[in-house]
Amino acid sequence: MTASLMFPEFTAITSKDAASGFRCEEEALTRFFQQQATQQGRREENRTWVLHRPDGRTDLPWVLGFYTLTWIQLERSSLPAPVIRRLPDYPVRAILIGRLARDERCKGMGIGEHLLDDAHRRALRVNADIGGLVVVVDAKNAHAAAFYEAHDYTALIRTEPEATSWPRRYFVRMEDLRATYAGT
């Protein structure tokens, strides 16, 4: 992350954010942010968290990036045996970072890492209250997959017809995140 940037707190998306001109390299993520994120939040489907530019940095876009969080259930068969060992035979609850994107004008500034860090910390707080075995992400393409793999995510087990399609789901165990953030 660029050391000179002091980021404000993340906030829930507003209509002003959606209309701010945010754009990223993945058109589907840009379209989601501009057209669906606010509505889905109002319907209680998920929460979209937004990172705004720091005060005085009018050279940067108003919205630097965003991510969404929601709950999902995973079939046990999509997780490796060591992860589901000793668990009852029913679907596993997980926290999904359904979308994560930074504005294309902020490339190379560490915004993606900052977004993921906040999503992890928020997932750990939710986990402390109500549980959840893993955090799951949807990688939209090979670039996104490499980003998540560099942050210790592992691909879910996929059936043969799904093996070559995008998006692909990756996971990290909650206990591994907890260990990573212990003492911070």
Automatic annotation (TrEMBL):
Residues 8-179 form the N-acetyltransferase domain. GO terms for molecular function: acyltransferase activity, transferring groups other than amino-acyl groups. The keyword Repressor applies. InterPro entries: Acyl_CoA_acyltransferase (IPR016181), GNAT_dom (IPR000182). It catalyses: glycyl-tRNA(Gly) + acetyl-CoA = N-acetylglycyl-tRNA(Gly) + CoA + H(+). It comes from the Bacteria. Keywords: Acyltransferase, Repressor, Toxin-antitoxin system, Transferase. This is N-acetyltransferase domain-containing protein. It comes from Corallococcus coralloides. The lineage of its organism: Bacteria, Pseudomonadati, Myxococcota, Myxococcia, Myxococcales.
